[in-house]
Amino acid sequence: MAYQLYRNIALGNSLQVILDELIQSFLNTYRFCDNLWTFVLNDVEFREVTELIKVDEAKIVDCDGKNTGSNTTE
């Protein structure tokens, strides 16, 4: 997998540290079932260039786009 290329260099290590800190600070729950990730975050800020939106709780749902809508095997 391509993401493993960055694991053992400074960029990959720095990204992992930042992600670990973010997850410990904001992540309430997560689950993975049937190729679907669900994350529930607390006290989240969404930022755009001129806007800032703060919410008490946000749910992020993510799926593998390669397998969406297809039941065929490769």
Structural description of this entry:
Belongs to the TFIIA subunit 2 family. This protein is of the alpha+beta class and about 70 residues long. The chain has a domain at about 30-65: TATA box binding Protein, subunit D, domain 2. The protein contains one helix and three strands, in the order αβββ. The longest helix has 17 residues, at about 10-25.
In short:
By secondary structure, the protein is of the alpha+beta class.
What would the CATH topology of the domain at 29-65 be?
TATA box binding Protein, subunit D, domain 2
Low-confidence regions: none
- Per CATH, the class of the domain at 29-65 reads Mainly Beta
Structural class: alpha+beta
- Portion of residues in beta strands equals 35-45%
The mean pLDDT is: 79
Q: What is the H level of CATH, i.e. the homologous superfamily of the domain at 29-65?
A: Transcription factor IIA (TFIIA), beta-barrel domain
* CATH architecture level-2 label of the domain at 29-65: Roll
Annotation, overall tally of beta strands: 3
Give the spatial strand order of the biggest sheet.
Answer: 1-2-3
Main sheet: strands, sense, barrel: 3 strands, antiparallel
Tally of helical segments: 1
Q: Portion of residues in helices?
A: 10-25%
Q: Evaluate the radius of gyration.
A: 16 Å
Name its key features.
about 70 residues; alpha+beta; TATA box binding Protein, subunit D, domain 2; 1 helix; 3 strands; about 25% helix; nucleus; Transcription initiation factor IIA gamma chain; transcription regulation; transcription; TFIIA_gsu_C
